[in-house]
Each structure stands twice: as C-alpha cells, then as structure tokens.
Amino acid sequence: MRVRNLLYKLLPLVVLVVVLFAATPAYATIGNPNSIYIESVKAYRGLWESGDMLFVVEYDLNYTVDPGEDPSDTFLVGIWNNTIKGPDMPLNYYQYNFISVYLTAAQVVSFGYELDDELKVRVVGNPSYFPTLTEGANMRTVTLTASNWLEGGSVSETRLYLADWCIVLAGSLEDAWGNITLLSSGDKLNSVGMVKFKEAIPGLDSICPDIFQVASTYPEYTDPVYNNTYQDTLTSREGARLATALEGLGVWVTGKNGMGSVVGGLGLSILFFILAGRIFIATHSVPVAIAVSIPFLFVGNIIGILSLTITFIAAFMAVLMFSVTFILGRFG
Amino acid sequence: MPYVAKGDEFSRVDPRQLNNFMRVPGFVQSLTPTQYGSMFRRILTAGWTPEERIVYDAVIEGYTSLDSLPVATGLTSEQIRGALDTLTGRGYVRQSGVELESKEFAL
C-alpha cells in the first residue's frame, strides 16, 4: 500500500521528466574538417565613412566529403577582443573562399576597437554542431598585428587599398578554383567575379567601382545647406526705439511680454490690406492690387519688423494667384 | 596553380558557390563541354566520398573489370567494394556479368 502511494506521488515527476526530454532539441553533429586555415586577414578603417571597419578574411575549410549541412549553420567568422566576442558572420561556403565582416563607425565605437588593435579573427564551428571546439581541428584563430591593418590618408585612399587587395584575392581564387575565371584581361572583375565579390563584401561596387568590368554608380548628391544670414541682418535693423515701441504696444494689446514683433507684423499686414483694398477700388483688378501692394512688404523687411521668409511666401502666393487669374484667365 | 587529381576538379570550391556561378548570365556558355561536365559532376557528387569519386571516374574511363580497378585506382579491394556498393545502390554503376557499366550524367 505504501509502495503504491509512493508511486502515485512520483507519477507527476516522471511525467515531467518525460516531457522535458521530449522537448529538448537534439543537436546534430558533423565531422571536423580535414583542415581549417585562415589564409589572410586584412582590416580596413575608413571605407564607407570615417571610422568604420571592414575585415576581409580568406579561409580554407577543407572537407573531402562536402557536408550536407549549410555552412551558415555550422561555421562562423568572428572578431574577438581577447576573450570578449565581437561581431560575427555566418560562413556562406566551405572549402577555399573569403568573407567579410563590416562595422559602422558607431559599432566600432561601441565595441571599442582601434586601429592596430591586436584583435583575434576566428573561423569557428557552431557549438551546436561541434560539442568541443579545438584550435586547429574545428577552429582557427589569427591575431591581428599592425601589418594586417590598412588606413589611407583619406577614405578614397583606403578604398584604393581595398581595390588592390580584391584583385589579388580574385587571382588567388582563380588559381585555386581551376577553370573559373573571375578577372577579365584588364584585371577587372568580370560578371562572375562581380557576383562573388559583391556577395562577400556587400556594397563593394559603391566604393570601388573601378575594379568591376561593368559597374553602375549613383550620382553623388549633397543636400545644400541654407542659412538665414541676410534675413538675420534685416531683422537686426529694427532698431532699439522701434523695438521698444512695438514691445510696449504688444504688452498693451496682449498683456504679454515678447509680442512686439507679432504686433509689428500684424500692423504691417493691416496696412498692406488697406493699401491693396484702395488699389482694388481704384482699378477693380485683383492682380493689379496684389502686384502693386507686394513691394510694400519689402518696407517691412527693410525696417526689420517682417521676416523675409514671410515676404517670400506671400510673394509666391501672389505669383500663383496672378498665374491662375491673369494668365490662365486668358485661355478661359 | 595547385595540382588536382582526376575526379577532383573544382574540389576547392564549395558546390553551393558553383551553383551560384551557374546562374550568372553567360557563365555556362563560357565553359567548354568538358569544363561544364566536371563542374556539373562536382555539384552532383558533392556528398560522395573520395573512393566513390575515384571508382566512378575509373569506370567511366573504361576500367570496367573488377580485376583492373585496384590497379587503376590504387584503392584496396575492400574500398572498391564499398564504393561500388554505394554507387550501385544510387544507380550510377551497374554490374553486367563480370563487367561494370557506368551511367553518364546527363549534361
């Protein structure tokens, strides 16, 4: 009886253990490669923007029998600062190939990397597939020295360094891959080379268009920077007496301080509409009334109580109305 | 230029990479039939063992007798037997009497 009670008490625990075992994913494993090497690493600083970093890693992950598992699941290339893991990229391919890891300037700052840092670049198996990671068996580490780092005097000079290295790398890949041609006769990347290099270094064509046999680039455009220098000069012409008078009027009308310019602009507008109204009464023509009155606004600009921006907006509206009523009216 | 053994063409390229290249417009047209055949075989035999590749190449080249295969391939009888069993199972090689016949890949 006591044994049965004990079994009843243990039953939920047994069920829980069974459920937990069933829910635990079983990780697959693959064999270690025949050999794993990092053939070269080049670290560039300042390619797309000042302070960004690009690590170009040439590796050889040799398997006699190509694993069926996707290399992006089983291996990655990453950057380590001593024992602190930094950014990484899953590998696209086994065998002899290359890949890159890019960091924006902001990411570089967040990781705290500097030029000539002795960072470790590592091609390493995914622990889900390789329960034990062993240097030389399923992991290979290269510690960067100053000779691995490249930074020109300017962004364009650093890009030239990368362009030269890409052509060298394409030659090595061609030699190793046999009958696959990546370079054209003029040492430019052909259509196959373009596919390979743009895949390994996304955006390469935007910074090194000259290494491609066929390349397309976007026209460079920089947003113009506007300043309000002249407007500020005009505004400063208001003068102390007029400013004090308008400020006093503003306090008297609204009961608040700092309303002088608003009251001044409002007063000028009232005068503008009175003038426009008088001209309209005399001519019976809206376009003429507006066209003759608009220069009055410039008086406000010159004495500094009306912003030049408002005058231009008003002038634009006047031109628009003139076009609609006068020019389009001729076709009616 | 690294040396590559017969049947090992493109062994230093991941077949996935070759597959990508095959999709580049004009790439296939730029290859000779022999190059295309080797590349296609590399993609198709990606998961084959070296023994299976060597034995298959030898049979294609005309070493169809079981006696000649150890000499042609340099493999032991056990290795050849294992490779042939797999290749036969997959349908790439079949035994006709005492001779072997290979099924060429459709190129």
Key structural traits:
heterodimer, A: 332 residues, alpha+beta, Immunoglobulin-like, four-stranded mixed beta sheet, four-stranded antiparallel beta sheet, 11 helices, 8 strands, 17% strand, elongated, B: 107 residues, mainly alpha, two-stranded antiparallel ribbon, 2 strands, disordered N terminus
Distance between the termini of chain B: 27 Å
Strand content of chain B: 5-15%
Question: What's the overall geometry of chain A?
Answer: elongated
CATH topology of the largest domain in chain A: Immunoglobulin-like
Summed up, the helix count of chain B is 5
Please give the oligomerization state of what you see.
heterodimer
Flag low-confidence runs of chain B: 1-5
Helix-and-strand structural type of chain B: mainly alpha
Order of helices and strands of chain B: HHHHHEE
What does the main sheet of chain A amount to? 4 strands, mixed
Major sheet of chain B: size, sense and barrel closure?
2 strands, antiparallel
The count of β-strands of chain A is: 8
Care to describe what's here?
- The complex is a heterodimer of chains A (332) and B (107).
- Chain A is α+β, with helices and mostly antiparallel strands.
- Chain A has three domains: 29-151, Immunoglobulin-like; 153-215, no CATH class; 232-331, no CATH class.
- Chain A has helices at residues 2-23, 71-74, 105-111, 155-177, 191-200, 204-207, 229-235, 240-254, 260-283, 286-303, 308-330, and strands at residues 35-45, 53-62, 75-81, 84-90, 95-103, 120-125, 139-143, 149-150.
- A four-stranded mixed beta sheet of chain A has the order 5-2-1-8. Chain A has a four-stranded antiparallel beta sheet with strand order 4-3-6-7.
- In chain A, a hairpin with a 7-residue loop joins strand 1 and strand 2 (53-62).
- Chain A is elongated, with a radius of gyration of 37 Å.
- In chain A, 25% of the residues are buried.
- Chain B is mainly α and 107 residues long.
- Helix content of chain B is 49%, strand content 7%.
- Chain B has helices at residues 15-22, 33-44, 50-61, 68-73, 77-90, and strands at residues 93-96, 99-102.
- In chain B, strands 1-2 form a two-stranded antiparallel sheet.
- In chain B, helix 1 (15-22) packs across helix 2 (33-44).
- The longest helix of chain B has 14 residues, at 77-90.
- The A-B interface holds A 60, 62, 64-66, 68, 71, 92-97, 175-181, 191-192, 195-196, 199 and B 1-2, 4, 9-18, 20-21, 24-27, 30-31, 35, 38-39, 46-50.
